[in-house]
Write a structure and sequence with these properties.
The structure holds 2 protein chains of 2 kinds. By secondary structure, chain A is mainly alpha-helical. Chain A has 7 helices and 2 strands; from the N terminus they run ααααααββα. Classes of the chains: A mainly alpha, B mainly alpha. At the A-B interface, α1, α3, α4, α5 and α6 of A face α1, α4, α5, α6 and β2 of B.
Chain lengths: 159, 161
Amino acid sequence: MSWSALSLACFGAALALHALASRFGLIRPAIRRYIVIFGGAGVALLGAILFAGLPATEALAAVLAYGFLVELYLFMFTLSLGSVSVKILRLLRVTPLTRDEIEARYAPEQMVDIRLHRLVVSGFIVRSDDVFRLTRKGRSVRFAIDRVRGLLHHGRPGR
Amino acid sequence: VWLAGYLVTHFAFYVLASRRVSWFAGERGVFLFHALSNVLVTALALAGWATGALSSAVVAVCVLGHGMYSTTFLWIWSGTQGGYSAAILDAIWRSSAEGTQLDWSALEGVGKGKQGGRLADVEALGLVVCHDGRFVLTSRGRAASVVAELFAALANVQLRE
């Protein structure tokens, strides 16, 4: 089997498994499901590469092809989950809407609630007595984001 | 090894250039900087393949390696630049550090700005058009919505999520 066929086979199998797991709500939250399934398929790909005895360059090409496809899928998957632009397109696919109707579907307070819920489920924040606090994981991520912002010369959003 | 060296240089150049030239720090700048570099690397790799100097696997390593680097960079860049979740983590951290209440109105303001801005963005991109006060998809918008719907169906993302 060629390096490209190996990559495509592993990606296709992971994609099908991920679609099934998403449909039946297996492995939560969504990011863990993604890591478990695509990470598992990545390990399987490494095993298949060793088994097939591919030369080093072809093995690297197979790993990069798989990584690139997985990353593109992650990009599209998170876009469909969180992007307001994508949600507007999906809404208008169902029926034409006025500006007020679009804004009513995604009221800012509702958007904040959805994000807070996701952050709680993912273990980045905890809620106690109606007060939100960052967990250790949340503090690490915020610290990392802050460092990247500094490196890439970004300001802080919402300021 | 050459590709790794090139990508490290590309990243270092961006970090330095974005501090001095504001064009690099904008969406268009960062996208063009990566798109042009991808075109350059792909063209050089294909030229090497056409002359027999590079195998197809090496060409794939060059193109896919740069593709992965650019996708990762743009993903991190957009997430840290204007991510809603990042803004919420910031606001919670700030309210804890300062011992103040969480500023809900500021967070909702971020959401309102995103919503208004995104509608203007998709209109400017020619994906939607306003007819008699109602927004409808253009043909390009319908094509984009089919792709969006396909990925949403694969990951079982409901419209209300």
